[in-house]
Amino acid sequence: MQTARVTVLMTPEKKASMEATATELGVSTGEYIRLAVDNYHDGEEEQLAQLVRELNTALPAMEASLDRSIAIMEDTHHYVDGILRKLGLRS
C-alpha cells in the first residue's frame, strides 16, 4: 500500500507536459512519476562511456581480423579460379 507522499514543485508548463505524457501512456500522473523514478539509472552515462572506450580499444583488432579474412577469401577465390581455368570450366 502506497501511503507516503512527496511534493515536487515545477512550472505549470512542465506539470501540464507531464500530465499530457501520462495521459498518452494511459497511466495516472502519480504512476508516471513512479515509473520514471523506478527506471532512472544513475551512472548510466559513465557505463556507456566505458563501453565506448572498450569498443574503441577492440576495433583495431577486429578490423585486422576482418582484413585477414578478406585476404584469405581473395586468395581462395584466385586458387579456385585457377583450378577451374585449368579444367576448362572457366575462361
Account of the 3D structure:
- This protein has 91 residues and is mainly alpha-helical.
- It folds into two domains: 9-40; 43-91.
- The chain has three helices and no strands.
- It has helices at 12-25, 29-38, 44-86.
- The radius of gyration is 30 Å and the shape is elongated.
- The protein starts with 11 loop residues before the first helix and ends in a 5-residue tail after the last helix.
Count of alpha/pi helices = 3
The H/E string reads HHH
Give the number of DSSP strands. Answer: 0
Count of all domains: 2
Name the helicity range: over 70%
Query: Gyration radius, to the nearest Å?
Result: 30 Å
Distance between the termini: 81 Å
**Largest pleated sheet:** none
Low-confidence stretches: none
Q: How much is the average pLDDT?
A: 94
Give the DSSP E fraction (strand runs of 2 or more residues).
under 5%
Shape: elongated
Name the structural class: mainly alpha
Short overview:
The protein is mainly α and 91 residues long.
